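To whoever is on call:

I kicked off a structure prediction for a single chain this morning and the downstream step that reads the tokens threw a length-mismatch warning. I double-checked the sequence; it's 579 residues and nothing unusual in it as far as I can see. Pasting both halves so you can look.
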Amino acid sequence: MVNAASATQISYTLTFPDAQAHYVDVEMHISGLKQPALNLKMPVWVPGSYLVREFSKNIETLNAYADGKMLTTKKTRKNIWHINIQGISAVTVKYRVYAFETSVRTSFIDVSHAFLSSPDIFIYPDGMLQEPSTIRIIPYKSWKKVSTSLENSAEDIFTLQSPNYDILFDSPIEVGNQDVFGFNVAGVKYEVAMVGGGTYDKERLKKDLSKIVEEETAIYGENPNKHYTFIVHNYLKGGGGLEHLSSTVLGVSRAAYATEPGYQNFLQLAAHEHFHLWNVKRLRPIVLGPFDYDNENYTTNLWIAEGFTAYYQNIIVRRMHLYDPENYLNILATDINTLENQPGSKVQPLADASFDAWIKSYRPNENSNNTTISYYNKGALIAMLLDLQIIHHTNGQKSMDDVMKYMYTQYYKNKNCGYTDEEFKQGLELVLGENLDEFYKNYIYGLTPIDYNKYLQYAGYKLTNELAGTNDPALGINTVTNNGKIIITTVLRESAAWKDGLNVNDEITAINGDEVTSLEGILNGKKPGDKLIFNINRDGLPMVIQVILLKNTRVKNKITALSNVTEQQLTVRKKWLKL
């Protein structure tokens, strides 16, 4: 895979002499150089996870050589190494990477396996993102398998080829003795690499993952891959997923497959990340590619890229009939409760939540619940509203599927570019046949409370708050117990605790003069307006704070069917829930 138009050749050799200490040694060779200086760079983030992670912090002992002599290397920025190569055409660079962070977006190495998240492993020459490269892996001791979406050599499975760095940085690599099995759907070869054991049933997984692929491919009309890889890390505890162009990495509890809810959660995760191969990896906000690997890549459209995908992860599993309509409606109600019980829903608009992901979503603190929302959560609910509106207004002829296929065809296939905010809105309006200015003003850029029943009634459903009419009191705090001490971890905006001055990190020692070891039952028999006297320690100093209880404003919504359902409502319901 050498680019004929370029004389530059780049190769990497990876070895693991200290795998037990979580290191990989990388030897990079670059030939065909003609410039007087070479800047080597490492990405500061991994696409799909919107946080600057400073991957260069894990690099040590970087040295460059030419003709057997060490060259002078100067670090000029946190992720840039400068080398003077006047008159030198070939350079070898040797460096070590420490990899001991367990997540779907960072590398991890021990004696059992190596998970290589490419952006925090491979340094690249500045100005050469379009250059191909060869990666040769010399496995540690008894490692026998490699799983990745990169092409490998017919002669050696451990020799991989990448056509450019965008592909390389979007292609994680698993090396070890993972349990590998696969299936074929519509001419696409799928590989599943299970790492860390687990209670999974291979045959059931092959059948259900095939259904996910079929359902999602039907939306877009094609699967643009030749092969696709699921890398699944099974942990004692853990979770998460990260999408890639032709693969995904999933984190799952290895015991999750043993229960039906746990298994369904795994399928939802797989459906989410696989849906991304269209939505965000190809159909994408305009700033998300080509990537700036040195800085944040801001967009106000993560509510589409992630939120719509979160909507589809559940509706896809419903379309597979793996859970009944009531179960799906309960999942929706839970999502609504999550948003409506978050004080930040009255503070942060959805577009802002997307834009500020880099500084807020991935860096939560004790006050985040009061000031932010999840663009996954609200974005999924917005997709649900729009889906119902489209089905209703087209009398069951169209749905959100038609929007996604139109946008994929128009912007990925025909124009090969990303969409702007206005262009996606126009795509929605084209399929819906109505103007969405007011919708965007209220729900995307504004803080107008969502009128769920306006949209649910299109399908003959209604949303009911089961706590309406109650008069229970609430403090508005969350606590943990550390070494017998009750410590406040959260104070909810506008709650009794918020108004009267209880703080995060306060240690509660007594209430109404009585020592406490637990807050369980502390509100029994109480009503709004009652007073509680808190003895606390704040930074080691004793204080007394009086709190006047307020009415509990939390909601517990349930979605139920309307009593008299029209034919049009039934048409929408059948289309929406695939009845």
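Update from on-call: the warning came from a stale cache, not from the record. Cleared it. Sanity check on the structure: The longest strand covers residues 23-31.
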